[in-house]
Amino acid sequence: MAQAGRRIAVIGAGAAGLCAAKHLLARGIEVTVFEAGSTVGGLWVYENDNGLSPAYRSLHVNSEASVTAYKDFPFPEGSPIYPNHMQMAAYLDAYAERFDLKRHIRFRTPVTHVERAGKGTWLVSSQGGDAERFDAVVVATGHQGTPSHPAFAEKFAGEYLHAHSYRVPEPFRDKHVLVVGVGNSACDIAADICTVAGSTTIAARSPVLIMPRVLFGKPTSRFLAKVEKRWMPWPLRRWIRETITWAVHGRMEQWGFVTPKTRTHPASHPSLMAHFVWRRITARPGIAEVRGDEVHFVDGSSRRFDAMIAATGYDVELPFLGAALSPVDGRWLNLYLRVVHPGAPGLYFLGFFNVGGGGNIRMMDDQAEWVAAIEAGEVAAPEDAEMKDGIARERAAIVRNYPDSPRYGLELDPREYREALALELRRARQRRRTS
């Protein structure tokens, strides 16, 4: 068990911060959670007063509830397959109540600075408060709070906003709207506004496979889990996914997209392709140039738009960490298994990843369990050299398997990642037994 009197600060009361607190408290460790807003739930809280939530009114989780939930806290019986943001926020609030976490949370207390104060000691400063000493710090602030704007944004003379600021379709009634990007948020927003807008166009710079959300009345992810095997090379798995998509939606090229030939972050939506059939949405390739309200595409075509919504991702910013402590290295994070900071023992990060197969919360739960095991003295993190080698291998694998795009710096395969975490725990316990 943990040493008596050990104190750990957790920054953020979203999905990652809550399970971090739960696992640490279960091991007898004192926890203080700093939350900038007035409620738990993080990005799933619509119009969260912490100013960081990108939730729009129509938002639903992309992975089904059964694989999204914490391991020991399923969604209530009768929940939909894909809960909406209100149900997600209620679920996270219920989790905080079930494990008595709220009394450990300081709401409306944003952290302003974190620094080392000697070996095994950290100083955490918050807005309006004095610096406090902790034995470790868990950063669980999320990575979808700082929008990444395209270079041409300032050149557009029409109405411009990032997807982070989008909430409802009504302001775009009868307008000609360009949605930049083809990730899940772009698909959601385009499908949301196309029934009220004068026209809706998606600008897809990168190849994409927009898979059906449901197949044979069940989530497509279930079918893939049964059909795809670990021994299958990626080209075979890609062929399976292309065949499913072709059978339901046809070829991507007939709708103006390009079918990817490398491993990419998949997209899916329950109604997007139906809107293409009705010509409510059309697609264009990447943007070459913007002149006022006229957008020129790389295929030589151009069109005028009243509004542009950029679903172009986010930058990871951790303003409370100095350069020496921040793991951010361009689009990469120098973290072993995305959690442990080599050279800064006692500083951990949870939830800093993108996944194509869902299960974000389940993966955060695994991360939090590992952190709690380390802090309770049950296991030890590897030596710095081993962790740095692991970081380099992960980065090389992303470069080898995914397109050269900033969005893939945080990419993870859920199944492979959870297996890697489980392997690390087994190795750590073995190291402890033989030490």
What does this structure look like?
The structure is a single chain. The protein has 435 residues and is of the alpha/beta class. It has helices at residues 15-26, 65-68, 85-98, 184-193, 220-227, 234-249, 272-277, 360-375, 384-401, 414-434; strands at 7-11, 30-34, 105-106, 111-116, 122-126, 132-134, 136-139, 159-162, 176-180, 199-203, 210-211, 214-215, 218-219, 267-268, 281-284, 287-291, 294-297, 302-304, 307-310, 328-329, 332-333, 347-349, 354-355, 411-412. The strands form eight sheets. Strands 3-2-1-7-22 form a five-stranded parallel β-sheet, covered by helices on one side. A five-stranded parallel β-sheet has the order 8-19-9-10-15. It has a three-stranded antiparallel β-sheet with strand order 4-5-6, with no helix packed on it. Strand 4 (111-116) and strand 5 form a beta hairpin. The radius of gyration is 22 Å and the shape is globular.
Summarize this entry quickly.
The protein contains 10 helices and 24 strands.
